[in-house]
Amino acid sequence: MKLKQNSDLAELIGMILGDGNLGNYPKCQYLRIYCNLKEIQYAKEIKKIIEKVFGKKSYCYKRPSEGVLYLEISLKNLDKLLSLPVGDKIINKPRVPLWIFTREKYITSCLRGLFDTDGCCYLTGGKYRVVNYTNKNTLLLKDIYKMLKLLKFNPFKRGNRNIELGRQQEIKIFFSIIRPKNIKHYRHNV
Questions:
Q1: How does the average pLDDT of the chain come out, rounded?
Q2: Contacts (Cβ under 8 Å, ≥6 apart) of 180
């Protein structure tokens, strides 16, 4: 099996780099993408993408005591198919695969997956919106910064874990180009 390099795969990779992980079962590997138990709408979007990319049913598991749910699929050689490492993302420091940087539509899709899982839009000063990507992986933050620059945005670094957009006109453009699928990002009337 070989996965087609397209916008769906780029978005899925963004989701994995955000709130996903790859692990090992005895005879295969698994992919899990986590979200808040209250984000049922977004869980359906994750499910659609996984099933579109792999052509295989995914499974949803809930952990009410932790307030999360995750979607899972298992296959052999997922790490090779996705060009992402198995295991702890903090230790392994996965990066955005190079092929995603080759087309604007791949970049926007990957940024969507990352934003929908690990990003947020918040208000500062009671009225100014800020788009934020937070991650402990500094190499991934460099990739996010680079992708935003390639799309002609003016991102800035806040501390060691955040890349942000603060120009109000850019935030409008960000939402029109990236088109987040997680409805939580629209709570500030963007």
A1: 93
A2: 112, 115, 116, 119, 186
Q: Report, in this order, helix, strand and coil percent for the chain, each rounded to 5.
A: 45, 25, 30
What distance in Å separates the CA atoms of residue 165 and residue 91, rounded to the nearest whole number?
27
pLDDT at 190 over 50: no
Q: Can you tell me whether residue 122 is helix, strand or coil?
A: strand
pTM of the model: 0.94
Q: How many CB atoms lie within 10 A of CB 112?
A: 23
Rounded-to-integer distance, Cα 173 and Cα 170, Å: 5
How many CA atoms within 13 Å lie on the side-chain side of 161? 6
As a whole number of angstroms, the distance between CA 34 and CA 12 comes to 12
The CB density around residue 82, as the number of other CB atoms within 10 Å, is: 22
How many other C-beta atoms lie within 10 A of the C-beta of residue 75? 14
Residue 180 has a CB neighbour count (10 Å cut-off) of: 21
How crowded is the C-beta side of 146, counted as CA atoms within 13 Å? 14
CA nearest neighbour of 128 among 85, 81, 172: 172
**pLDDT > 90? residue 124:** no
Radius of gyration of the chain (CA): 16
